[in-house]
Amino acid sequence: MLGIETSCDETGVALYSGSRGLLAHALHSQVALHADYGGVVPELASRDHVRKLAPLIRSVLAEAGL
Questions:
Q1: What values do phi and psi take at 33, rounded to 5?
Q2: What is the pLDDT of residue 55?
Q3: CA-to-CA dists, residue 32 to 9, 14, 45, 58, angstroms
Q4: Which residues of the chain have pLDDT under 70?
């Protein structure tokens, strides 16, 4: 099972097997991206989610050997 989670400032991906448990996971934080603004900037956050999601999925699949 591939799980994808996005919050206002994080993008997370995990791969789970019912028989083997957690196979791999990755998390990208946007804290540094928003630091200069004193809070989350929604437009920057949404663009960063789009930019980071595919690389995180590829990373998790590779870590799991798939």
A1: -60, -40
A2: 97
A3: 10, 22, 11, 23
A4: none
